[in-house]
Amino acid sequence: MEGETSGWRRCSSCKKWIGFETLYWVCNVSTCNRKRTGLVFCTVSCWDAHLSSMNHRESWAVEKTSPDENAWRAEREAAANAPPRGSQPRQRLVRPAPAQTVPAPTPDAPREVLIVASRLKNYIQARSGMNTSERVLAPLSEIVRRVCDEAIRNAEREGRKTVLDRDVPDS
User: Fold this and answer.
1) What mean pLDDT comes out for the span 88-114?
2) Please, which residues have CB within 8 angstroms of residue 102's CB and are 6 or more apart in sequence?
3) Nearest-angstrom CA–CA distance, 141 and 145
4) Residue 61's closest CA among 16, 17, 20, 12?
5) Lowest mean pLDDT: which of 20-24, 26-30, 85-89, 148-152?
6) Secondary structure letter of residue 159 according to DSSP
7) CA atoms of 136 and 114, how far apart (whole Å)
8) Residue 11's pLDDT is what?
C-alpha cells in the first residue's frame, strides 16, 4: 500500500505514532470525537495540552485501545470503496399530517402571560417615552397565542412537527 505508516495514527498533540493494539486517549467532549476531527492522544499529558486551546468547561480523557493492523487495513479499504459523500441524492422524509389539528385549550387551563413584562416596558419606554400598564400583558398574550396557533396549523399542513419562522403569519 502507498503511504506505509509506522503505526495506527499520529497523536494529535505531539505527532508521535500510536501503534496497533496500543492504549491511547480521546477527549470525552463530542466535538473532539467527531469523525472529521477525531483527536487522539498518546498520553494523558498530550490530551491535557489540547485543553488550553479548546476551552472545554468539563472534560476528561477516555482510555481506548487502537485496533490491530488487519482490522485497521480492512476499515481503510472499506472506506476507500464507499461511494463519495454526497453522491447519492438526499431523500426527504415527509410525515403524514396528524389526524387532529391544534387542540382547543380547555376553559379551565391556566392562561399564563407569554410576554416578558420588563422587555415590553423597556421597548415602549425607549420607543415613545410612555409607561406601560400591567393590564397590557394579558391581551398581548392572547394575540401571541392566536399567531402561534396559526403557525402550528401551517406547520401541520406541511407535515412537520417543528414550527419554523415561515409558518408565522405576516400580519
Assistant:
1) 64
2) 149, 152, 153, 156
3) 6
4) 12
5) 85-89
6) T
7) 11
8) 92
Which SS3 state, helix, strand or coil, does residue 42 take? coil
**CA-closest candidate to residue 69, choices 24, 6, 143:** 6
- On whether the CB atoms of residues 41 and 70 are closer than 8 A, the answer is no
pLDDT at 73: 86
Cβ within 8 Å of residue 73, ≥6 positions away: 1
Is 39 in contact with 26 (CB distance < 8 Å)? yes
DSSP H helical segments within the chain, as ranges? 30-33, 44-54, 69-81, 117-128, 137-157
Query: For the whole prediction, is pTM greater than 0.90?
Result: no
Dihedral pair phi/psi, residue 18, rounded to 5°: -100, 120
